[in-house]
Amino acid sequence: MISDQELPGLTDDLLGAGCVWVDYLDSRSLPPTLTDKAPRPGDEALRFVTGRRPTVEWAVAAMAQAAPNVTVRRGVKLRELITGAAAVPAVPHVTGVRTTSGEEIRADLVIDAMGRRSPACEWILGAGGRAPIEEAEDSNFAYFTRYFSGPRRPRRMGRALTPMGLFSILTLDGDNDTWSVTLYTSSRNKAMRALRDTATFHRVVSACSRQAHWLDGEPITSVLLMAGIIDRYRRFVVDGQPVITGFAAVGDAWACTNPSAGRGLSVGLLHAQVLRDVARRHVDDPLAFCLEYDAETERRVGPFYRNQIAADRARIAEMNALEAGLPMPPPNPIMAKLLLASSEDADVLRGMIEIALCVALPQEVMARPPIAAKLASMDGYSLPPDPNIIDRDRMAALLDG
After folding, report:
1. How far is it, in rounded angstroms, from Cα 304 to Cα 290?
2. 3-state DSSP helix/strand/coil percent for the chain, to nearest 5?
């Protein structure tokens, strides 16, 4: 939605590059327990275009390159922030950046969009500012991914992300007749490292009844491992005072989580929209800009980060308990009811899709009268065990072959 509002033409560019539409409300993808499968006005807003990261980044970069009043300079590395006369007493004010070659690039506002590896904290300290608030933790997930290609995309049966006990499985459509299957698990579970082996990976995916058919293609990679992904959050206003002015971090440079939910682009677009709106109002007032940007970030974007961190902590706790043979920690009762209700109630299903696509927060969805009434009617219900879950003993057998 934000992309169509702010970047008209990008959807067509992505489709032209081979990206594809995904519709979780397609009749073939709906839960068999859902009786109301009729389309509704507004369903088109819950469709989205997707592709592999290099393809999406190429299309976005091409749009930026062609935009008027935008200069893209590739291969230029930055070294530090340049400061000038303070706009707020005792707070450094950024007036540009210095490259590694010594060139100075001046700006009314320097925006950090350098992603999760941004050195912003070091640069701010180097410019004489106070340290931003920073929270960082490793959610201890390890990801095992394989990419496939074929003439037909796999039919989606159920959710894109499905917990399966000791691991979760993530199935994603890609561009140009490609797709991927990811198994992610606790990095502390050494036995699961066997998933690097292609035969073991395929054996485990084949045991997932709703996802096994995603193997029906030509593998185009080995099993790729990714681990050590840090969840991090930064805040640049401390005790009501900015640590630096003339500077703003956006997207992953502000906060980032593990990639299992696939929300980085969506949250980044929302955050960029917030940044643009605040800059229009206050770019000439550095203090007002910093304070409002901080407040709007916390109000409109921060909850997506907090909710994902809570979900990650709950999921890794489940995995670790199962590995140790301990009882599973109780699920979040509200989210458990939402999940159960989404299989039989069309309103709740659409709300869950909105949450997954970052169109709405869980708090907003649960406050809607039809959904609130549905959840109230389920008081006392508990989420039944999923018969498709792979238990500890069966998982050990699959890993051993």
Report:
1. 21
2. 40, 25, 35
**Are 153 and 197 in the same domain?**
yes
List, for residues 319-373, the tens digit of each pLDDT value. Answer: 999 999 998 888 778 888 888 888 889 999 999 999 888 889 888 999 999 999 9
Q: Is residue 324 part of a domain?
A: no
Give the integer Cα–Cα distance in Å for 374 and 351. 12
pLDDT per residue over 128-156, tens digit each? Answer: 999 999 999 888 999 999 999 999 999 99
| Domain edge (last residue) among 31, 66, 101 | 66
Token pair 């917990």 in the structure block, residue: 163
Chain position carrying tokens 């007002």: 288
Q: Extract the runs of DSSP E, i.e. beta strands, from 215-364.
A: 218-219, 224-227, 230-235, 237-238, 241-242, 247-249, 255-256
Q: Do 234 and 123 fall into the same domain?
A: yes
User: What pLDDT score does 205 carry?
Assistant: 98
Instruction: Give the end of a domain, one of 161, 191, 225.
Output: 225
Whether the full predicted model's pTM is greater than 0.85, yes or no, is: yes
Domain membership of residue 213 as a residue range: 141-225
Question: Do 89 and 31 belong together in one domain?
Answer: no
Same domain, yes or no: 219 and 153: yes
pLDDT per residue as tens digits for the range 152-187: 999 998 789 999 999 999 999 999 999 999 999 999
In a domain, 393, yes or no: no
Number of independent structural domains in the chain:
4
- Token pair, residue 195, equals 């998933």
Angle (CA) 352 358 364, round 5°: 60
- pLDDT tens, position by position, 41-89: 989 989 999 999 999 999 999 999 999 989 999 999 999 999 999 999 9
Phi–psi pair at 287, nearest 5 degrees: -70, -50
DSSP code of 245? B
In DSSP terms, 110 is beta-bridged to 247
Q: What is the pLDDT of residue 357?
A: 87
The answer on 147 and 118 residing in a single domain is: no
